[in-house]
Design a protein that fits this description.
about 375 residues; alpha/beta; TIM Barrel; about 15% strand; single chain; 12 strands; globular
């Protein structure tokens, strides 16, 4: 099962949290319950979620990222040398600020007993002959990006005067976590990566505090760190990547087609497949897919998770065939454009609407590829 990923009918990984889980997390922060009691609630919620994922016919199962507050930061917080605190301003999204913790370096980066390994083991027990357990983590590029953005750069340089040393330490930490996940039986890892959304945005240079030459250097560095973490991975371990322009409470952070990064990213990043959002005009057209190397697959994120409106099946099928002009149909798959809850707040849809989206993905996939 694991080596068949991505699947024709696929997901990005996060799901809306049930209200009782959100309430339990609040009670932990208020000191009303213990961490052990929260874990029991999480275990129950994840068990129920996995049952629902199987019922809807998915070939991959995840924990819905139910044990996290955000898709990326909780993973970083578990590394040595990373600190965080309640945000002073948040991250600007379209019409709303994402009030996620400010996260920064406090010392040299290393990985030790990362909790996500235990998180994966819980999901692994539910694997069967029809399903593979997947672990989603932020891409190494996302980790690096977090520490070298203008607001963090001065603090980071005080710890790592040479960026290459930081890159090597992050990659080394990732390799350790990947090895431990592999030892726990994981054969399907997904890197989630919003750095490319920034790089393609018309305001990329302003956001990064650089010029066009600096932007090009950033692109090469982001590919380099991702590949460094991947190198020497076991042959039967599938590592795919999901590329996003921001997903918080049904809002977005960046816009722009893939053309500006496609020639380098799609040809050089050593992942097995790219999960790419194409749900609206912010993502541009399919033409950049011409740079996808022949050994890689593409998962078309044509179904939006940001809106409850259910897409027209015929329109999605038409778009799949448009993409097939650049990547053969047999190397294409279908999924929602992002997760349903990249942070615990979730997007502005109901659970019923969430599952209806997935049923539509399955229905279309069966019609196109069967």
């Amino acid at each position: 099962m694991n080596n068949n990923a991505p699947f024709k009918y696929d997901i990005v990984g996060s799901f809306l949290r049930p209200e009782y889980l959100l309430q339990a997390r609040k009670e932990l922060s208020n000191g009303k319950i213990t961490a052990k009691e929260l874990k029991e609630v999480e275990d129950r919620a994840i068990t129920d979620l996995i049952k629902k994922q199987k019922e809807v016919g998915l070939s991959v199962i995840t924990d819905g990222e139910y044990r996290r507050s955000s898709w990326h930061l909780d993973f970083m917080w578990a590394f040595e040398g990373v600190g965080h605190e309640k945000t002073k301003g948040g991250i600007p999204f379209h019409g709303e600020a994402a009030l996620i913790d400010d996260t920064y370096l406090t010392g040299k980066v290393s990985a030790k007993n990362h909790p996500f390994v235990e998180h994966f083991k819980f999901v692994k027990q539910f694997e069967d002959e029809n399903t593979a357990a997947r672990q989603t983590i932020p891409a190494p590029a996302q980790f690096l990006f977090q520490m070298i953005t203008p607001g963090n750069l001065e603090r980071t340089k005080a710890i790592y005067p040479k960026e290459e040393e930081l890159i090597n330490d992050i990659a080394k930490g990732y390799k350790k976590v990947i090895q431990e996940l592999y030892a726990a039986g994981c054969r399907n890892i997904q890197f989630d990566d919003c750095t490319w959304g920034v790089c393609v945005d018309p305001n990329a240079c302003f956001i990064l505090g650089t010029d066009e030459h600096g932007l090009e250097q950033n692109i090469q560095t982001l590919i380099h760190i991702n590949n460094l973490a991947i190198e020497d991975k076991p042959e039967d371990l599938v590592i795919n990547t999901h590329i996003c322009r921001g997903n918080f409470h049904s809002t977005w952070a960046c816009q722009g087609g893939y053309e500006g990064v496609a020639k380098d990213l799609f040809a050089k990043e050593e992942v097995n497949a790219f999960y790419l959002e194409f749900d609206d005009e912010r993502s541009g057209d399919f033409e950049p897919l011409r740079y996808i190397s022949e050994d890689k697959k593409v998962v078309l994120g044509l179904i939006t998770t940001k809106s409850p409106v259910l897409e027209e099946k015929e329109n999605i099928i038409k778009r799949i065939h448009e993409a097939a002009k650049y990547v053969p149909l047999e190397r294409l798959c279908l999924s929602p454009q992002c997760g349903f809850a990249s942070t615990e707040e979730g997007n502005k849809i109901t659970e019923e609407e969430q599952w209806a989206k997935l049923k539509l993905v399955q229905e279309i996939a069966k019609e196109v590829w069967n």
